[in-house]
User: Fold this.
Amino acid sequence: MDSSLNREKPVVRLRAFRAIDDPETCALFVEGHMHVLTNFGIQKITSAKNEWLHNPAAFVLIVESLDRKKVYGGVRIHVAGGSEPLPIEQATGHMDPHIYELVRKYALQGTGEGCGLWNSREIAGYGIGSIFLTRAGLAVAPQIGIKSLFALCAPYTVKLSETIGYRIEKRVGNDGTFYYPKLDLIATTMIYEDLENLSTASEEDRNAVMELRANPNVVRTEVLRKKEIEIHYDINIPKLDQWSLADTIANSQKPRASTRPEDTNLNLL
Assistant:
């Protein structure tokens, strides 16, 4: 199969892996994400450092063509205690240092952040960026071992995030909100506290995530607003024998130097 999409019913793969294990696909992720950000008029991000590429605690979920030559969207999960602070710490810590204490508290049981969510125009309207990548991220959480998940959400994703189980975290910022990535834009801090049972999710989302956990390698026809997309799920994360959540948790409790916001990437969910 070539990299072109069937607009009537696209066929794609949704795959999960650790960033350091697949640098070639990560490069495609970065290229696609930067292109989307540029289309939104966020120019300065194109020179960002993308240190997550070398972070052993960064996991990636991508939507790609079956021949793996084209990436149509993606999202990342960063686990607290990796080689860099969580993106939410980098983005908001200079505005409210309480975020560091909050992350450290949840990191004791294993926490992370869903970030860098994007999809290309080619696949817009099929639910990749709004639903299916987010569900897949929740589905792989038990493999990684984390118990909770932070997110920094753009205004148009807050309600969707609440439906899938996130709740607004009001202990930081202005009742959870920050001006980010610039003064005329608002981002909302959110947290998912029950990744194991998904008790705060809608019944539809909870059932969908649980089905993916039971069958992580499955082909499904997903439907959103009468649009169909065939997704080949491949979300068993490889090489997890080389992953240690315990070591990552231990590292999360060490003091860290603050990061200047201009050195960070844009990482909204």
